[in-house]
Amino acid sequence: MPETLPVHPxxxxxxxGEESVLEISSEFAEALLGVEQQxxxxxxxxxxxxxxxxxxxxxxxxxxxxxxxxxxxxxxxSPFRPNPIGMTRVRLLSxxxxxxxxxxxxxxxxxxxxxxxxx
Amino acid sequence: MPETLPVHPxxxxxxxGEESVLEISSEFAEALLGVEQQxxxxxxxxxxxxxxxxxxxxxxxxxxxxxxxxxxxxxxxSPFRPNPIGMTRVRLLSxxxxxxxxxxxxxxxxxxxxxxxxx
Lengths: 119, 119
Hints:
- Chain A has a six-stranded antiparallel β-barrel with strand order 2-3-8-7-4-9.
- Chain A is globular.
- By secondary structure, chain A is mainly beta.
- Chain A is built from one helix and nine strands, in the order ββββαβββββ.
- Chain A has two domains: 1-48 and 84-119, YaeB-like (Elongation Factor Tu (Ef-tu), domain 3); 53-81, no CATH class.
- The interface between A and B is large, with 47 and 47 residues.
């Protein structure tokens, strides 16, 4: 399909064990105003380690369980999908300036952050 | 920020009154395998009518209510955000081939669909 929609990272994920830090670029710091009042947030991130082959997979076994029949990726939460955008609801632990400490994010270290929404 | 992540539409939203139709491109039809077993789905879509000015707004009044103090867009579900990606949980009414009839989608007619996930 010819149309391309350009997405620009607003920051990057840093893994710290069970915790993740959302490092938001200073140009978007204003967008964090009042975020510390949220208990949960939705994080949209780019799954930057997915290979082109993984992005072309349109079906997968649910939860990777080969005993279950394959389903289309639009019927799953599988990481394989044409646009490698992950979406996870996280718990906000604390904020230090442009850095949000969160729990429950299944994003790899270095993943570009696309968006944060109240959750 | 220089990095650009290219997103490609997997289909388009067609509004039919209260109902919306997700028209998925035939090249991604396989990704719909088994989707009719889902009662709810998450739809990620591109808010294509947002102006560049609206995308630059980093704070807004919650629910557009001017009596409430402004907050950053990352603490809100406001449509204003640097990457104009909407995320809505919808009810799946029916499937006809590559077309999913859904209820509850707050996307304008013609919005590019970026992803569908089980919900």
